[in-house]
Structure formats: C-alpha cells, structure tokens
Design goal:
Blueprint (H helix, E strand, L loop, with lengths): L4 H14 L9 H12 L4 H8 L4 H7 L4 H16 L6
Length: 88
C-alpha cells in the first residue's frame, strides 16, 4: 500500500532524530547521493542518468563543487602512472 507523502516525511524526520543527524529536507538525500557518487569517481553520465537530469551539463553544473577535489585525485593518479620505472 502506498504511503501518504506527509507520512514519509514524518518517518524521515524520526529517522534523522534517532540517527542523531541534523535536520534536512528529504530532497537533500538526492544531493547527498549525487555528491557521494561523483566523489567516488562514478562517471558523471551514470550520475546524470540516476538523477534523471536531461543533460550531463546540468549534472556537472549543479555539482561542480565536487570537481576540484576530483581534479587533484586525477593529477595524483597521473603522477603515479607516469613515474619512471626504476632500473635495477
């Protein structure tokens, strides 16, 4: 049986209190999920599809605050890949 939206919100608020989490909107879970996915290196196209955004540009524009940290990770990974191999 489907739940009434107001009951979902009530349950959500109770879960936040029980988990000692700050008050937030139910919609904030969507932003949290997107931020975590991008931060874990999941391809933005996959995130776009999961969120239902019409374009990847919308996803990247909305979550661009994640990109600087991702850039640092990419730079470190490239440094590792391009290190000269030690010759014995």
């Amino acid at each position: 049986m489907p739940m009434e939206p107001r009951n979902i919100l009530r349950h959500f608020k109770k879960i936040l209190i029980k988990a000692n989490l700050p008050e937030m909107r139910f919609h904030d879970l969507r932003h949290t999920a997107a931020t975590i996915m991008l931060g874990q290196g999941i391809h933005p196209k996959v995130v776009q599809e999961r969120l239902g955004h019409s374009t990847i540009g919308l996803t990247l524009d909305t979550y661009s605050h994640i990109l600087p940290a991702m850039q640092a990770d990419v730079a470190e990974n490239l440094d590792e890949l391009l290190k000269p191999v030690a010759v014995n």
